[in-house]
Amino acid sequence: MEELLELKDLLLKGDVPGALVIVEELEEMSRNDIIKTIRSYAIILLLHLIKQQVENRTTRSWDVSIRNSVREIQRENKRRKAGGYYLCSEELFETLEEAYLNAIDEASLKVEQGRYEPEELEQLVNREEIINRALTLILPQ
Prior knowledge:
This is DUF29 domain-containing protein. InterPro entries: DUF29. The protein is mostly helical. Helix content is about 80%, strand content about 0%.
């Protein structure tokens, strides 16, 4: 809110270069919020993909959670008015990589009733395969 008031003040004073700096800051803040939201859904998505791989099975609940996470990531990533996407496929991949360790930690509590420590669980899964599967699900066909 403070930034908007400052932007208004700069525009009223005719300080376009100063106003553009504030606009860039606002854009960056908005983008960071979008990335944070995408990362949160990515953790849930990866968690269920990890569970599927380790337990070599799935449940309706996991499938629904996967679909919902994918939809939310796609919705958050889509630029509504300008068209296109906030994050390109490489940036989505990086975000999935960043979310992976959190997903492993969460999965260690849930896979086979918490049987594995995160380090043990990491040895049981194929990180690259899980991240690539998640990316395939997220990217528009």
